[in-house]
């Protein structure tokens, strides 16, 4: 069982990146998947989640309207499209999977069972 976040990079403010959370050894489509981020010196925070148990997705207020979470069943990934990136968005972005619950708990790290290694996003002019 492996989870890997990828797609990070460096963009200018207002730019876009698309992150992918790729699973191997299990099917992401059955579970709840969340994206989190951690900036240097700050606590890890929830960004977005999608639950295949109840069909819902949610976003943190700080990214609502700019980020979109989606799934690609063929690739067994959950993607995070990030548009209009701002100077406050740089961080190490992680994805995680929750095997047991739906969207009701998806903003809370404690409910996630398996984490992937992060991918770095930087925003600079």
Any overview of this molecule?
This protein is mostly beta strands and 125 residues long. 0% of the residues lie in helices and 48% in strands. The chain contains no helices and 11 strands. Strands 2, 4, 5, 6, 9, 10 and 11 form a 7-stranded mixed beta sheet that branches. β5 (45-51) and β6 form a beta hairpin. The model has no long low-confidence stretch (mean pLDDT 94).
List the helices and strands and how they pair.
Elements: E1 2-6, E2 9-11, E3 17-24, E4 32-38, E5 45-51, E6 57-59, E7 67-72, E8 77-82, E9 91-98, E10 114-115, E11 119-123
Parallel strand pairs: 2-11
Antiparallel strand pairs: 1-3, 3-8, 4-5, 4-9, 5-6, 7-8, 9-10, 9-11
Question: Can you summarize this structure?
Answer:
Helices cover 0% and strands 48% of the residues.
Q: Give the amount of beta strand, in percent.
A: over 45%
* Radius of gyration computed on alpha carbons: 13 Å
Largest sheet: 7 strands, mixed
Q: How many β strands by DSSP?
A: 11
Mean pLDDT, rounded to whole units?
A: 94
Q: Key terms for this structure?
A:
single chain; 125 residues; mainly beta; 7-stranded mixed beta sheet; 4-stranded antiparallel beta sheet; 11 strands
């Amino acid at each position: 069982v492996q989870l890997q976040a990828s797609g990070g990079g460096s963009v200018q403010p207002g730019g876009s990146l698309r992150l992918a959370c790729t699973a191997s050894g299990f099917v992401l489509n059955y579970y709840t998947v969340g994206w989190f981020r951690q900036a240097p010196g700050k606590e890890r925070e929830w960004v977005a989640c999608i639950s295949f148990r109840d069909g819902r997705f949610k976003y943190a207020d700080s990214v609502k309207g700019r980020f979109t979470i989606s799934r690609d069943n063929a690739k067994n990934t959950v993607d995070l499209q990030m548009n209009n990136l701002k100077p406050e968005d740089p961080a190490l972005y992680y994805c995680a999977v929750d095997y047991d619950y739906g969207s009701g708990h998806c903003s809370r790290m404690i409910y996630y069972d398996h984490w992937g290694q992060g991918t770095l996003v930087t925003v600079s002019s």
